[in-house]
Structures are given as structure tokens and as C-alpha cells.
Amino acid sequence: MRRTMNSVIGAAALVLLAGSLAWAGKFMLINGAGATFPYPIYSKWFSEYAKVNEGVNFNYQSIGSGGGIRQITAQTVDFGATDGPMTDDQLRSAPAPILHFPTVLGGVVPIYNLPGVNENLNFTQAALTGIFLGNITNWNNPEIAKANPGVSLPNKPIVVVHRSDGSGTTFVWTDFLSSASIAWKAKVGKSTSVNWPVGLGGKGNEGVSALVQQTPYAIGYAELGYATNNKIPYGKVQNKTGQFVECTAQTISSAAASAKMPKDFRVSIVNPVGQDAYPVSSFTWLLVYKQQTDRAKGEALISFLRWMLKEGQKYTEPLGYAPLPSEVIQMEESAIEQIQLP
Amino acid sequence: MQQSIQTRKFFSVTALSLTGLFAAITVSVLFFILGYILFHGIRALNFGFFIHLPTPVGEPGGGMANAIVGTVKLLFLASLLGVPIGFFAGVYLAEFGHNRFGFWVRYATDLLNGVPSIVMGIFAYTLIVLPTRQFSTLAGGVALGIMMIPIAVRSTEEFLRLVPRSVREAAFALGIHEWKTIFFVVIPAAYRGLLTGILLDLARVAGETAPLLFTAFNNRVWSRGWMEPTASLPVMIFTYAIAPYEDWHAQAWAGALVLMMLVLVVNGGARLLLPRRRIAV
Amino acid sequence: MSRSSSPSFNWGDRFFRRVCFGFALTVVAIVIGLAGSLVWNSRLAIKQFGWSFLWGQTWDPVAPLFGALPFIYGTLVTSAVALCIAVPLGIGTAVFLAELAPPRVSEIVSFLVELLAAIPSVIYGLLGIFVVVPWVRTVASPGISAVLGWMPIFRGTPYGVGLFAAGLILAAMIVPFITTVSREVLLIVPRSQREAALALGATHWETVWNAILPYARSGIIGSIFLALARALGETMAVTMVVGNRPEIHASLFEPGYTMAAVLANEFTEATYDLYLHALIEIGLVLFCVTFIVNGLARLLLLRIGHSVEVNA
Fold first, then answer.
1. Which of A42, A47, A62, A319 to probe the B interface (max B CBs under 10 A)?
2. In this predicted complex, what is the ipTM?
3. Quick one: which of A76, A125, B51, B176 is 20 to 30 A from B134 by CA?
4. In the predicted structure, residue C273 carries a pLDDT above the cut 70
């Protein structure tokens, strides 16, 4: 009995010591949370950056843009990430000024699961708004069929999938639908979290992709990378000039080209004018406090941002994103100076 | 209702066979779960699972090393909080608790036992995460620790009560003070049951996911010390399960296998170790 | 042993007793703190919505308008489905184990059933996503709709995810509670009951149904309440298969949402205080509901004069 007690106490002390000291060496942990939209490229970046700067490790949790905004406002993370820029109200309710830094361009594509249909579908703006409003309920509806001559669409009910969490991807998608349809704008509007007329909820881009992947006759929306990396079919979307455009790095960049980037970097590039612009494109931002409280962490963040602008952009295309336009990169490099270290 | 004896007998046999069928169904559910996880988990399990960190999305070869260590750290913290409180409260109830106050303590314990684990997570969030402005292993450990208390109390009280009065009386007859009796005579007499109760308690909270979602949060790399967010086995399984990546699904099965083996070994061992007495957990 | 009969009451005893008392008090304090913190941290929502929170059907963070009814509905329905399946299964198994099975078999099977209760809920969820949901989508849902689809609760598109799938998984999780406790209770029924029935010429089943089960009734009902409390609070397994849609539909095959699931999904992203408080208020409602159900369970189980309580 005495021996058991002694060994238990000894083991406990060891664990306590190990836990406290474990890897307490030079490396620093920077915590971030937010958008699932850029998660694939962020996870790649953080892994590559750790090779460049071995003393710093980034822990990024993809909990959705809403979560990113919330946690940076509550200061429980060192940086946030969102594809729906913070509103003026949200910025006002933060304890200190927060800066937006665009990182990549991406596009939101309509992903679907149609057994027996191998072609890539074309979706008119009216078709997408109708589907997500719940007005178009079957796959062989004329609005969908007329854009896809020659494709035999099944007479099956459409299973709509949307986000259950607060999402920048939702913001971009609903921004697009609002600009495409007055009915949508009036009834649902655009936000990171809306009152969806129909559909199942998936958590994160991951959850939506998984649900669509697993549910026949489903349609959802996700960032391009999720569709390409998981081989989920996605459709072309009709843009403002009437063209059916496939989401690629070029068409996304084309959409970004027409936008005038404001000083605070908060801009929407959905449904722009342009022949080959992909209408559901968006920037995605990192959220960082203007006034940093921890010098070492602030330095690491600044250093990462610079690396991201110079070296990081080359990882974008293979993963389903587009690099930032060069003018934006230049603007950002000077904007990084705004971050103040203690 | 005058049915013939044959009808009644037939009905009786049928009804009783049905109960046998139900029992078979219940047991087969267990075997199905075990078998399924064994099958999928073994295929995905490899040495790398235990020593590698998670890799970026889409890159193969990741593991759950940090999650396993995280779970160990969380359980350690949880027992630091839950075991002393549960144990001594249980001692109080068994030795001194035959009064009004004891009634309220038992009632509170039952209440705590019934609190859904997600609500426990909310409590730890408001208690620790908000003031410290940090997701941390500490917050997760506190959430799990509070969950451990009711079972520890109940199990301690029950096993101490099992020790016969004669043992205590013998000690008193020898002139030993009360506290020494309890501490050096009664508790050692029950120590097997007490230890098993604690182990079962640990096994139970090891699988809890909900309280960790917004306390310990999650981590893609190692978590140092106690004030950083940490990965844990159940949260990793959850995150990977709802994602679309095949590689992550495989790792989720592997993680589920590891978790389940842990839980089943402890539970199985506990039942075998103790005499036929049912454990009040 | 009480203070007065101890030969010499010294400082050691006093100290030890105080320490134990202190820890016991801590337990009570934690419970009070928990309840208080839930109320305090949901005050904004309580003030804004009052009681209408409980029957508000809209959960709209944009408006902002928060009503908990869809979640309360989803929680109750999934638990009800779970009980409908688990109660017959659980009691039947308990009867088999207590009445028919030889003692050795009874012990082994009983042990196996208890193992079911030990399996973590995230593992149930994992199996839910990859086994139960596809099965419901391809087999159960179309099958049941074909036969019973004239009833509103069985109509609907086979999504797979939804209230029915969640109920199914919950049933598997709560069966052990009903079985274990019911079996204990049945074993305690005095032989005299059984012998009296047999002496009157009852068949074995008639004995069970008319003499034994009624005697064990309050214990069995207590076990059902325990199982219910567990089902009400279950988070992970349900979140992974319920469909995450805060709406009330008649059909079981439609997606839904439960109180615990919305907390798991939306807690980290409540972007403003009212939103967070509304979520915590759902936690408070959940706490109160499980408190009441557990209280009833305790009442029923104490009446049989034996603390037959199980891992909850």
C-alpha cells in the first residue's frame, strides 16, 4: 500500500514536471482561429513557415469566420481570419482597432452530387437563387435544364446544404445571391449567419463538402479548393455579362482586377462587370490588432505577413486559390507598417 | 379472458423468446460497434499515428501524437481536481454524513452528475477562458475535473460503506483516533474498490468531447505547459470525422480504436478486478 | 461513529473532519456556482426575450431574434424516438437476463451491456456518420415512408441525417441504462411474488407480466427517466447526424437541431454578447430540464429503498 502510494505520487510529480516544462524551449506558439475558406492554404503556409522560422509555430483552428471575428474580439487568440470583412459595428465593439490583411483570393463554387451525371453543370443566377430560396425543388427544373442542353437531369428533389456555423463563405455566397436577386436580398440578405429558407447545415467548408459528398442529389457551396481536393463536381456560374464561367485562378483574378481596393482592405468583389470574371470570388483576411501587446508575438506576426506576401503566394494556385494582385501586395506591404509593437 | 392453456403457453414461449431476441440485438449492437471500429481502425493504425503531428490538409502521413499527449495532460489535471474533492467528499458522506447536510451533498452530487457535458464546458469557459483570455489545457482540465467529482463521491462513499463496522470498532477498541482509523484502516481496506472507481471515472471523462470544444479548444502542434490550447483525442476524432478528406477519416477511425481500447481495457479490467459487487458509478 | 462516543476527541479528528466537510461543501458550492453562472451569463437574453424565448420559433442571429423552440422540439423528439426503441429493447433484455438466462450468462451479458454505456459518444457519432446515416437514407427512410408514409411523421425526402437518425443512435446509447437498472430491480423482486403467481397457474410470461414487472414498476420507470436524462443532454453523437436545421417539421426524416447540438456548433462564434447570452440561456434551459428529469428518476428509484443508480 505504501509502495503503491509512493509510486503514484512519484509518477504524478513526473507528469506535472514534464507537462509544465514540455518543449518550453525556444519555440513560441501563436494561436489563430477563423475562416474555413482558406484553411487548406493556411495549414500549408504555417507548415512551410515553420521550416523557415523554426522558433515560431502557428496553431490555426478553422472554426468559421464568425468564430474568427468573435475570438479575436474576445482576445482569446492572437489573430483571427475571415472572408466576411468585419462590419463597422463589429469593429466598434472590439476593445481596440483591428486591421484587415488580405491573404489570398478564392472562389466559392456550387458543389453537387448527382449520380449518373458526369458533365459539369451550368447554373444561371436565377437557378442558384431559386434553389437556395427553396423555389426550385427538383433537379430537372427548366431553369437548370435550359442552361444545360443535352444533359439528362434526374427528376429528384434537390437537397440543399448550407453552413450551420457563422461563415465568411456564407457571407460571400449570400453577397452574390443578394446582388443577383432582389427577392433574396429582401428575404434573406447577406451575412455570415443567415436564416436559410431550406437545407441541411454542415459545420465548416469541411462539413458542407462532406455532406454533399455523402448525400446523393445534394447541392451546396464551398471554396474551390475543397471541391478540387476532394474531387467533388462543381458547376459553372453565370456572371453579370451572361457568360458561364468556371472558377479558376484566372477567372478569380479577373474578378479582383475590376475592384478598387480601399485603404482598410475591406472590399467585396462579387458579381463584377467583366467577361471572364468569376462572379463568386472573394478576398480573405487576417485580423490583427493594430496595437500588439506582446512584442515577440507581434514581431512574429509581422514577419509572417511579409513572408506570406513574398513567398506564400506561390502556394496558392495548386491548392485552389489565386494569388493577390500585385497592387494589393504593394499596398499591404506598406500597411503592415501600421502595426505597432509595445 | 378464457384462453386455452395451449394458447397461453404458446404466447408465453413467444413472448419470452422475444426477450431473448432483444437481448441478442442489444449484445450484437455492441459487437457490431467493436467489430466495425476494430476493422477500420486497424487498417489506418500505424506507428506514425502515435509519433507524428498532424500534417497540412491533403498531405499524408500525419498522426495524433499531440492529441494523445494532450488527453493524458487533460486527464492528469482533471484527476488533480476531481479526485481529491470527490474522494474527501465521499469520505465525509460515508463517515460523517448521516445528517441534513449529508442529504444536501448527495443531492448536489446527483445534480452535478446529471449536468450535460456541454453545459460543463460552458461553465469552464465562463470561469477560466474568459478571465484568462486564453483557451487552455487548464480550462479543459477543470471542465473534466468537475465532471469527475460526482462519480468519485458516489464510488468512494459506497466502497467505504462496504467496510464492515467491526473493522472500525476494532480500531477504536485499540484506542486509535477517529481520523487515523479512517485514514489508515478503513481506506486501505477499501482501496481496491476506490482505485477501480477512480479508474472508471477517468475512463469515462477520457472520451468526453463536448466540454473540450471551447475550453481546451484544439491545436495542430504541441502544446506547452498548461495555459495553451491543446489537441485531444476525442476532439481530433470529431474534427476529422466531419471533414471530407479520406485521409482524415482513416485517422479518425484509428483514433477511435485507440480511445475505445483505452476505455474498454479500463472498464473490463475494473469489473474483473472487483468481486461480484456492482460498482455504483 | 459520532463525536460523543469517540474516546478522546482531539485536534487531529477535528481537523480531518473539517477538511472532509470542506470538500463536501465544495461540491455544493460548485453546483450553486454552476447554476448561478448560467443564469448570470444569460441575463441579457433573459431580459430581452423573457419567457417568449421558450416558444419563439425563429433563431436568427442577424435580426437578432432568438427563440429556443426548434431546439427544445428537436431535443424532445430525438429523445422520444430513442425511448420508443430503447424501452422495449432494454426492458426485454432485462427480463431475459433476470428471468431466463442462467446466472453465468446473465452476468456476462450484463457486463457486455454495461460496456455499451462506456463507449464515448464521439465514437457513436463516428459510426452515425458512416453507418447509420447512409443506412437511414438508403434503407430505413424510403422503406418506412413507403409503408407508413401516409402519416406526417414518416413522410419526407430521405436525407439520411435528421431527427430519426439521431434518435436511433441515442437509443443505442441509452439502452444500457434501462437494462442494467431494470435487471437489478427485477432481481430484487421477492420469490414469493413469483411463486404465488405460479401457484395460481400462471404461465411463465404471465408471471412476469402480471406479478414481477408491476412490482418492479417504479424502479423500471426510474431507469427510463435516467435514460431520458442522458438522451436529453447528449451532444456529440447527435451533432454529427441531426442535420443542423433550426426548424420544426412534422416528419422524423427532416433535419432538426437539439439544444446541445446548437451549443456545440455555434458557441465559439457568437459574435456579440446577446448572441452568446442566448446560447447560454439554452444551456440553462437544458440544465433545468435535465435537473427535473433526474430529480424524478431519483424519486422513483429511492422509493424502492435501494440506491440503484448508474453511470449517467
1. A47
2. 0.88
3. B51
4. yes
